[in-house]
């Protein structure tokens, strides 16, 4: 059996009962500016800022399917017994709206005031493996080129990440067929396995960084081997329950730009952009300039954009991708195919968010399967 | 322009550089050339086909290629066509107006010395080629035969027509062609690919093409048919650009981020992408 | 499609140099006043620039002379009488830019619910002296009668969007109202999707953004008051509504609240493809 380890093969394990858990969260609250974790809002598990340990969602399980999400209560006071919600680290590290600059005009001259980088430090609790990998994918798009986004880097550097192994993936998850999960693999400070028995919820933890190990030493004791073994089994069995898969050669959908399935999916797709918004790796942004009423100040914001927007491709006011079919094709071929050309990896980590949060339940794994089928020859 | 908080390392793609318009040169209808200089510091060096995001207060930015000579260190020129609201506003700027640039950036034309050169432009596509043309004018001895084929809808749409004479004097074979014959027109008639098809090219010919996607494809095909090595054909791509830093996604063309990997591309690497509708 | 026609962004910043103060006129046709109230709500902000702009109000579009010319005319309300029709033509003549504000002006408004009904029967029921009532058979959007440069959607319009657009126009700057769906704003503001999370019918995916996802932010479905977005796939959403138990009649009612025929016209015009 595969044993998840911390950084550099660190095999130390800690054990956190509910007292140690509270201590960990409180410690984080003193160490960083913001602690963010899963909380319930309008019946959905969201990643939101915590003001108190008690804000975390407790005893919530969810049922996710294409176009459908329901969170319900469970008898166990678990904190992470649900799948990924609509929020990923993207909303924190690459926010929906970011100030870029203010330009003031005086006597015809322009004075630029770049927005200061966001140096807020943040701990994020409950990050899944898909999101750990998505953070790296997203980071590559924003910081690996010749003009890295300093704000992204600053926010990223301010992260303390408390990851969780998935012991009950959502029905929409397919991370294992994209090369990850369900155990937290990389890029965390602390990774937890949640164990629930006899109305008691406790955690086995491993460290992914010196900072994580220090924190754990501060709040928890070492775990005994028996409980570690149980944690490993819980994680290993999660991989078996995933129903959706993405084939290894999914990227070859770029070879069938004229497949009839593109037009067919466009009959269903609303070009609403929910999929790109919830996707933890979709990075596209727009620049919006706004002038003040007195005409003296112009501010630039960067906002999320989506390739499902007609204006996204517009050149001189003329959209290049007019049809919904071409926009859906841009999304899927980019995620799974041309991302490789641009960034040398896939843009999909298998989190399943685009499946759950598509209002009409379009499932990319179904679309890929259909696109990889040779087209039926017209009779 | 003054920058309130000096960034640790100045990146001209991220922090705009204020320029002032020193001249507005009307070209053909709806097209002007803006000549501009930075309000402080030197004119930035650039290579032919490189682009800047040109921005004006309250208007926004558009990606425009620099059309002046790369050896011209006194100013930059940008030829802008009124197409859409941003470029429309830019074409209405006047001498003394302030604006900014982020740039120059992008992959330039490969203008290594030696061999023949064929430069093919469709419509306004001659603007991103002008700095390459001026470069060959200044360094004519570095190349074999140089032929420029410029196509336009009518004779009134031929950009930089007043410069043809100087280019010819420098030893460039300038062939201007219009779509349909006009009274008083003595030049070629027909589309650029057709004109190209009637020419002969040596084995060491290099081609630079700029124009609408379809024109570039047809021209490249005509060149290949005329014996030009496909790997020696370059095209320049135009897509919606917002950031110019490879981070916003808008300029994608298949596996390319045009602002990062282009605008110049070797034709074989983009032939397929250009042939797929709405790709 | 009656609204949601794509028009190029307006070519207004033609005079970047600051000339005489721009003039702004506000006109009212058949409407509930909600949009004008929104303007009044913004008046404090507008007063701050009163020295740089001349504002003229014409609360009753049927009285007084048009005069002008005006740099910008904001027009609220729909065309319901023959007099309206003449009047709007004069206003167009006198205005450099004509901006329609609100669902009445952009789509005919709630009063367009009468379209297709027998207008004489209506008036004889409602009014004691129906012969005084001189109305056109339909309540129609301004764009059915004159060229419109820019539309501000909503019932009522969004105050933030109004101020932003006025700021741009008065300074002869560029405006780019959103063309994407309300869903985009839901996700940007962090609202939970009511359609996915509670099977509440929501018109957000086919409705143009601009409201900041107001209704989903209060856990309610979008009523579509900003009208159809580009390429609204009405049939696709109808299918999903059916899947969550909303029948066709209920969907039709939902589609015809504020923008009346606009969604139906869009559906007729052919789904998601142009
Ligand atoms: S494409 Fe879908 S499944 Fe893949 S990472 Fe994005 S949201 Fe997750
Ligand atoms: S799929 Fe679309 S929105 Fe997402 S990164 Fe690619 S182009 Fe951008
Ligand atoms: S696939 Fe679904 S979520 Fe994405 S744009 Fe289409 S309808 Fe919206
Ligand atoms: S609540 Fe409505 S508008 Fe918001 S994402 Fe869901 S379907 Fe779209
Ligand atoms: S212009 Fe933004 S990625 Fe190229």
**Radius of gyration computed on alpha carbons of chain C:** 19 Å
CATH H level, superfamily name of the largest domain in chain C = NADH:ubiquinone oxidoreductase-like, 20kDa subunit
Largest sheet of chain C: 5 strands, parallel
- Contiguous helical run count of chain C: 12
Average pLDDT for all residues of chain C: 80
Helix content of chain A: 25-40%
The secondary-structure element order of chain A is EHEEEEHEEEHHEEEHEHHHEEHHH
What ligands does this structure carry? iron/sulfur cluster, FE2/S2 (inorganic) cluster
Q: How many individual helices of chain A?
A: 11
Shape field of chain C: globular
Shape designation of chain A: globular
Q: How helix-rich are the residues of chain C, as a percent range?
A: 25-40%
Spatial sequence of strands, sheet with the most strands of chain A: 3-2-8-9-10-11-1-12
Q: Helices and strands in order, then pairings?
A:
The complex is a heterotrimer of chains A (379), B (279) and C (274).
Chain A: E1 14-16, H1 18-31, E2 34-41, E3 44-49, E4 60-65, E5 68-73, H2 90-93, E6 97-106, E7 109-114, E8 122-127, H3 129-143, H4 150-157, E9 159-164, E10 190-197, E11 200-207, H5 210-219, E12 221-222, H6 225-240, H7 260-268, H8 274-278, E13 285-291, E14 297-304, H9 324-343, H10 353-356, H11 364-372
Parallel strand pairs in A: 2-8, 8-9, 9-10
Antiparallel strand pairs in A: 1-11, 1-12, 2-3, 4-5, 6-7, 6-14, 10-11, 13-14
Chain B: E1 2-3, E2 17-26, E3 31-38, E4 51-56, E5 60-65, E6 76-81, H1 85-91, E7 98-105, E8 117-122, H2 127-138, E9 146-152, H3 164-169, E10 173-178, E11 188-189, H4 192-197, E12 206-210, H5 213-225, E13 233-236, E14 252-253, E15 256-257, H6 258-261, E16 264-266, H7 267-275
Parallel strand pairs in B: 8-9, 8-12, 9-10, 10-11, 12-13
Antiparallel strand pairs in B: 2-3, 2-7, 3-6, 4-5, 4-7, 13-16, 14-15
Chain C: E1 23-28, H1 34-41, H2 43-47, E2 54-58, E3 70-76, H3 82-94, E4 95-101, H4 102-107, H5 119-126, E5 150-152, H6 159-170, H7 182-189, H8 194-198, H9 214-217, H10 234-243, H11 248-255, H12 261-268
Parallel strand pairs in C: 1-2, 1-3, 3-4, 4-5
The structure holds iron/sulfur cluster (4 copies) and FE2/S2 (inorganic) cluster.
């Amino acid at each position: 059996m595969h044993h998840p380890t911390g950084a550099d093969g660190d095999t130390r394990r800690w054990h956190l009962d509910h007292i140690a858990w509270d201590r960990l969260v409180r410690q984080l609250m003193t160490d960083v500016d913001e602690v963010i974790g899963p909380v319930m809002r309008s019946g959905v598990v969201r990643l939101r800022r915590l003001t108190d340990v008690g804000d975390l969602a407790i005893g919530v399980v969810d049922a996710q399917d294409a176009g459908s999400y329901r969170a319900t209560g469970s008898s166990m006071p678990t904190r992470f017994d649900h799948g990924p919600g609509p929020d990923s680290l993207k909303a924190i590290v690459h926010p929906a709206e970011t100030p870029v600059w203010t330009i003031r005009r005086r006597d015809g001259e322009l004075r630029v005031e770049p927005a200061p980088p966001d140096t807020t430090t943040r701990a994020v609790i409950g990050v899944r493996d898909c999101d750990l990998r998505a953070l790296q994918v997203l980071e590559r798009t924003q910081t690996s080129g010749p003009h890295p986004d300093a704000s992204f880097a600053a926010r990223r550097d301010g992260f303390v990440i408390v990851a969780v192994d998935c012991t009950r993936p959502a029905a929409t998850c397919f991370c294992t067929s994209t090369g990850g999960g369900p155990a937290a693999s990389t890029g965390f400070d602390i990774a937890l396995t949640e164990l629930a028995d006899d109305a008691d919820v406790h955690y086995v933890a491993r460290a992914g960084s010196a900072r994580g190990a220090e924190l754990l030493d501060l709040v928890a004791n070492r775990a005994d081997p028996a409980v570690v073994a149980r944690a490993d089994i819980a994680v290993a069995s999660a991989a078996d329950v995933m129903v959706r898969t993405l084939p290894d050669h999914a990227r070859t959908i770029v070879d069938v730009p004229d497949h009839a399935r593109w037009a067919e999916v466009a009959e269903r797709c609303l070009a609403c952009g929910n999929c790109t918004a919830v996707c933890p790796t979709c990075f596209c942004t727009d620049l919006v300039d706004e002038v003040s009423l007195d005409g003296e100040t112009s501010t630039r914001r960067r906002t999320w954009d989506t390739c499902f927007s007609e204006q996204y491709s517009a050149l001189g006011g003329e959209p290049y991708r007019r049809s919904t079919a071409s926009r859906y094709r841009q999304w899927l071929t980019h995620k799974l195919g041309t991302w490789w050309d641009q960034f040398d990896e896939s843009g999909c980590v298998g989190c399943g968010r685009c499946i759950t949060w598509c209002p009409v339940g379009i499932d990319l794994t179904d679309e890929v399967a259909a696109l990889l089928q040779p087209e039926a020859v017209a009779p | 322009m003054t920058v309130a908080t000096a960034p640790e390392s100045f990146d001209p793609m991220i922090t705009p550089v204020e320029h002032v318009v020193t001249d507005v040169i009307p070209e053909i209808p709806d097209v002007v050339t803006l000549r501009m200089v930075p309000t402080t510091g030197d004119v930035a060096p650039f290579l032919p086909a490189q682009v800047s995001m040109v921005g004006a207060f309250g208007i926004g930015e558009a990606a425009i290629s620099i059309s002046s000579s790369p050896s011209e260190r006194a100013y930059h020129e940008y030829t802008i066509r009124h197409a859409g609201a941003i470029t429309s506003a830019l074409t209405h700027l006047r001498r003394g107006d302030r604006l900014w640039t982020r740039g120059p950036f992008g992959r330039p034309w490969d203008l290594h010395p030696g061999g023949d050169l064929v430069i093919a432009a469709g419509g306004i596509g001659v603007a991103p080629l002008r700095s390459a043309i001026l470069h060959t004018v200044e360094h004519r001895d570095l190349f074999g035969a140089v032929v420029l084929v410029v196509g336009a809808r009518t004779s009134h749409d031929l950009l930089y027509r007043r410069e043809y004479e100087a280019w010819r004097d420098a030893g460039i074979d300038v062939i201007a062609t219009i779509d349909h014959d006009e009274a008083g027109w003595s030049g070629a008639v027909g589309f650029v690919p057709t004109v190209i098809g009637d020419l002969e090219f040596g084995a060491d010919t290099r081609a630079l093409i700029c124009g609408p996607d379809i024109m570039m494809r047809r021209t490249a095909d005509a060149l290949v048919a005329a014996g030009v090595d496909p790997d020696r054909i370059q095209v320049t791509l135009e897509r919606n650009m917002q950031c110019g830093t490879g981070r916003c996604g808008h300029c994608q063309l298949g596996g390319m981020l045009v602002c990062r990997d282009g605008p110049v591309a070797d034709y074989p690497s983009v032939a397929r992408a250009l042939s797929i509708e709405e790709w | 499609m009656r609204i949601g026609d794509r028009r190029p962004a307006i070519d207004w910043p033609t005079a970047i140099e600051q000339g005489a103060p721009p003039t702004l006129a506000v006109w009212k046709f058949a409407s509930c006043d909600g949009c004008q109230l929104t303007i009044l709500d913004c008046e404090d902000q507008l007063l701050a620039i009163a020295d740089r702009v001349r504002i003229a109000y014409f609360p009753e579009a049927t009285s007084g002379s048009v005069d002008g010319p005006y740099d910008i005319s904001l027009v609220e309300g729909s065309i319901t009488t023959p007099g309206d029709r003449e009047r709007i033509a004069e206003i167009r003549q006198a205005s450099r830019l004509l901006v329609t504000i609100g669902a009445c002006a952009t789509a005919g408004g709630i009063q367009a619910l009468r379209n297709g009904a027998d207008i004489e029967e209506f008036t004889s029921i409602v009014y004691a002296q129906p012969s005084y009532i001189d109305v056109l058979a339909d309540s129609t959007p301004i764009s059915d009668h004159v060229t419109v440069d820019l539309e501000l959607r909503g019932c009522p319009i969004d105050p933030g969007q109004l101020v932003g657009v006025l700021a741009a126009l008065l300074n002869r700057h560029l405006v780019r109202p959103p063309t994407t769906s309300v869903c985009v704003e839901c996700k940007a503001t962090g609202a939970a999707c009511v359609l996915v999370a509670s099977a509440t019918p929501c018109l957000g995916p086919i409705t143009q953004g601009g409201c900041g996802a107001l209704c989903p932010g209060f856990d309610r479905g979008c009523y579509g008051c900003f009208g159809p977005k580009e390429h609204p796939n009405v049939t696709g959403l109808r299918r999903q509504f059916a899947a969550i138990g909303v029948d066709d009649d209920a969907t039709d009612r939902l589609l015809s609240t504020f923008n009346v025929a606009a969604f139906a016209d869009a559906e007729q015009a052919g789904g998601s493809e142009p």
